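Hi all, posting the design record for the shared folder.

TITLE: backbone redesign
STEP: 1 of 1
STRUCTURE INPUT:
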């Protein structure tokens, strides 16, 4: 996949960015370089390779230090809901912003 100057102009317009021609060209080269790197990574055969939980696991055995899953804060739902300008069934009501 490779982006053209028109693609960069369209993306800049959508992002509300105003790019100078040299900035646009530099951006196109950087993004296309990123796409090239992704394509190289996709070309690598990873059949039979197990995913890693952590990158250090490639050089040494590690154990993830996970904390105990327990409740540490009291339930303040009623107090929190009293601050809400509008609430229903224990949920905050907010104005609709997307149609």
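Okay, here is what came back for every position:
SEQUENCE:
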């Amino acid at each position: 996949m490779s982006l053209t100057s028109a693609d960069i102009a369209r993306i800049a317009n959508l992002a509300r960015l105003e790019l100078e021609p040299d900035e646009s060209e530099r951006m196109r080269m950087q993004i296309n370089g990123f796409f090239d790197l992704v394509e190289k990574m996709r070309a690598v055969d990873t059949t039979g390779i197990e995913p890693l939980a952590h990158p250090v696991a490639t050089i040494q055995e590690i154990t993830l230090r996970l904390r105990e899953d327990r409740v540490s804060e009291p339930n303040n739902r009623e107090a929190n809901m009293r601050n809400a300008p509008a609430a229903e069934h224990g949920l905050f009501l907010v104005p609709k912003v997307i149609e």
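COMMENT: The longest helix spans residues 21-43.
Let me know if anyone wants the other runs.
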